[in-house]
Amino acid sequence: MKLFYAPQSPFARKVHVAALELGLADDIELVLTPVAPGMANEDYARDGNPLRKIPALARNDGSVLYDSGVICEYLDARAGGGRILPGGGEARWLILRDHALANGICDAAVLVRYETWLRPEEFRWESWTRDQWSKIDSGLAAFEADPEACGDPKAEMLNLAQIALGCALGYLDFRYDERNWRGSYPKLSAWFESLSKRPSFAQTVPVNPPQ
Ligand SMILES: N[C@@H](CCC(=O)N[C@@H](CS)C(=O)NCC(=O)O)C(=O)O
């Protein structure tokens, strides 16, 4: 299988971490795929994701899956099912909800990056950017207040929400170190420090792609 990815993307990292946790990483070839709003990449729109977003997973039969949550569920099923996402019961709904929250933090953080890095300065919308930061902050505050949602970072297997949250925090460190999220969320900070020692996280720390 081929994973269209970039080493700085928190969504692509989530899939890569899930593959490592599930023992499937050796079945996946990583294909560096540059994407950004406004960047023409018609080959990828045709052969990967029509929305031109990463990650996408090309399976061995040629069919392609996106987005990151769908790919993670697929990998879980391929690894036997019920390992990063229970097949049923209340736990499933809570993990899916917390996954949505962590993913929403990533969405907001990536959008702020596009707004402040890609958009020409004269068109930037400061109150919109502040609002995205406020969403990120309320998401982090919800996790800080709910240690159960974070779960044990040393558990034998992580769940989908924990993986997504770790990738969101890693992206905040990577792009917005100066905002020091750790100062406001000490429980999350301790949790992330422990999570970061897992091989799946240590091997996938975000970096800028080669130029
Ligand atoms: N909901 C998607 C979000 C993926 C996403 O936004 N990826 C970013 C990179 S981190 C992207 O491809 N951006 C390109 C664009 O928005 O044109 C998922 O979970 O896979």
TrEMBL record:
A GO-annotated cellular component: cytoplasm
CDD domains documented for this protein: GST_C_6 (cd03205), GST_N_3 (cd03049)
Keyword Transferase annotated: yes
GO molecular function: transferase activity
Statement: the UniProt record of this protein carries the keyword Transferase: yes
GST C-terminal domain boundaries: 49-211
Domain of life: Bacteria
GST N-terminal domain span: 1-83
Gene3D superfamilies registered for this protein in UniProt: 1.20.1050.10, Glutaredoxin
Pfam families: GST_C_2 (PF13410), GST_N_2 (PF13409)
InterPro entries membership: Glutathione-S-Trfase_C-like, Glutathione-S-Trfase_C_sf, Glutathione_S-Trfase_N, GST_Omega/HSP26, Thioredoxin-like_sf
Keywords tagged on the record: Transferase
UniProt-recorded name of the protein: Glutathione S-transferase
Lineage, opening ranks: Bacteria, Pseudomonadati, Pseudomonadota, Alphaproteobacteria, Rhodospirillales
